[in-house]
Amino acid sequence: MLNQHTIEIIKSTVPVLQVHGKTITTAFYGMLFENHPELLNIFNHANQRQGKQQTALANAVLAAAVNIDQLENILPVVKQIAEKHRALGVLPEHYPIVGETLLAAISQVLGDAATPEIIDAWAQAYGVIADAFIGVEADMYQKVADAPGGWSGFRNFVVTQKIKESELITSFYLSPQDRGAISSYLPGQYITLRVQPEGEEYTHIRHYSLSAAPGQSYYRITVKREDGAVNKPSGVVSTYLHEAVDVGTVLEVNAPAGDFTLDQSIDTPVVLISGGVGLTPMVSMLESLATEQPSRKVTYIHAAINERLHAMKGLIEELNQSHPLLTSYVCYESPAEGDTFDKSGYIDLPWLQKVVEHDSDFYFCGPTPFMSTIFKALQEWKIPQERIHFEFFGPAGSLEE
User: Fold this and answer.
1) Known binding-site positions for FAD
2) Rounded to the nearest 10 degrees, how much is the dihedral formed by the CA atoms of 367, 190, 44, 54?
3) Which of 117, 312, 325, 332 lies in the 20 to 30 Å Cα band around 71?
4) Is residue 264 included in any domain, yes or no?
């Protein structure tokens, strides 16, 4: 436990972190990879280049400082990050390296303002926070390994089917090479792939949402090929999966993880809203609702550019026809001639109010601007926060302005 004096010192650094947090975390990652390049086998290089990881870490450090006297307030965030750490293979021995580097980054950015007293206080605080993560993650590792069909670390899976779902999106069906049982999962969770495309110095690890209902003998992921855009490089792993992986390819897979999951303990109406490849966890939820809660009213809304880029449309139509309490809608931003859809342009609140019930639980996923629009619409409609659920692809961000 931290003494009151140490707590006060940490809290006194909050204004500094608000101003210099991202500068500190940017320096942190630079030092970390210079001194420990082997950790590039764990971290997402694209998120580093785009600054997403630096921002996420800065927000996490700031939250820890604000709540240093009540760390239970950030326990949900700790568990969320720990889920990803477990999926990536972060181990207790990594934490001293991170702590040492973080203190060095604080000293470098703040200069003389980083007094020995401040550095010592942060060293103590980091020790407490690291212990919390290590404890939570140890429990997660144990539960995953002990679960029926569970395993530790990465396990070899074979691609048994590769199905093109749209011009840019393809589904991969993965079965264990050892033909053993596999862990079940909750609708909305993801698995983690570790690959090393030809010519790449380091391995690349990516999380991909499971796009089928649990209970199968295989995992299905549905991946968009990221071709790159302004300020966004092409996806190394997605390109590798689309161009180099085929039926028979062996991929390393870590067991399912994630805290963005469908609440199946209730029977209130549920609305699933997806944009682009954000449909992946939604389809898993939708299939699960259709089979396990057929008496629950479900509305599924999907937004895409047009029909050419709309994945899994046939699957959703089949589910819609066979389940009377399921209603689905399609919104195309720029529909082409001959496309079939329910709304053109963008999803907005007046339209949402016409097609879904206010007392529903809302789940949504997609590009950040899309999610921000949905989130603001639901806030304007005064949907209670506890009935709004969403997930970022990649490091957690913010939908608030």
Assistant:
1) 190, 392-395
2) 60
3) 117
4) no
